[in-house]
Amino acid sequence: RMGNWNEDIYLEEERMKDFLEKREKGQLLIQRNRRLKENLLRPMQLSITEDGYLRCGYKVMLVNPDYPETEADLVLGGDLSLCMTLEEIKSPPSDQLEVPCGLSAAQTKIPVGRNTFIILSADRNAMGQVLRYGQNFCLATTGGFEDRTLYLSSDHRTLLRSSKRSWLQEVYLTDEASYLNCWQAAFLDPQFRLEYEGSPVPANAKIIL
Q1: Contact 150/173 with Cβ under 8 angstroms?
Q2: What's the confidence (pLDDT) of residue 88?
Q3: Are residues 63 and 79 in contact, defined by beta-carbon separation less than 8 angstroms?
Q4: Quick one: fold of 41-208?
Q5: Closest to 170 in 3D by CA, of 186, 157, 180
Q6: CB of 81 within 8 A of CB of 66?
Q7: Is the dihedral of CA 96, 102, 41, 152 positive or negative?
Q8: If we measure between CA atoms, which residue out of 80, 64, 58, 57 comes closest to residue 207?
């Protein structure tokens, strides 16, 4: 039987060998997290409209513009863009995104992988079609990855499931295509909402989802 001191040396050598092997293959946790964040923060190019209207297939950002708030010390001010919440990523076993993935708002208007969304028709086939008020559509994101598509989803609030901070209905990203992915754009002013039903949605317009 080997002495304790010799056994410790062998165990240390095995741990070092395992560490070097994982580092060479890029399997260390810090390496996986670095690749994940590089994809999420990868610069993206938003679509440029030629006729002033949004179309299916366009890459866009969802921004909540700054507005006066009575409880300004309790909320985040400025223009807030919808984005993936990095804190929701819990040491993944790979450099892929976990689903469902949480969402948050950030004070940035720079398009990157985590805050750029793609407009898709409900049947995913009408690429290039003008988006209209009252039309069902989906918002998808790749998160900076080439082979991953996550859909912006939401469901009714229940006693067991709701947003952590506001206690309203939860909004999240998932890779499952369902009716929970369907959204509609509504005209901002409720007095003219019915009149604008079926009209094209202008780019950079304030709307209600």
Answers
A1: yes
A2: 47
A3: yes
A4: Trefoil (Acidic Fibroblast Growth Factor, subunit A) (2.80.10)
A5: 157
A6: no
A7: positive
A8: 64
The model's pTM is 0.76
User: Is pLDDT at 15 greater than 90 in this prediction?
Assistant: no
Domains of the chain, by residue range, sit at: 41-208
- Angle ∠(19,21,27) on CA atoms, nearest 5: 80
Residue 21 has pLDDT above 80, yes or no: no
Classify 74 as helix, strand or coil: helix
Q: Please give the Cα distance from 146 to 201 (Å, whole number).
A: 28
For the ranges 31-35, 50-54, 69-73, 168-172, the maximum mean pLDDT occurs at 50-54
CA-to-CA distance for 84 and 89, rounded, in angstroms?
Answer: 9
Question: Pseudo-torsion of CA 206, 74, 88, 39, nearest 10°?
Answer: 50
Q: Measured between alpha carbons, how far is 66 from 131 in angstroms, rounded to an integer?
A: 25
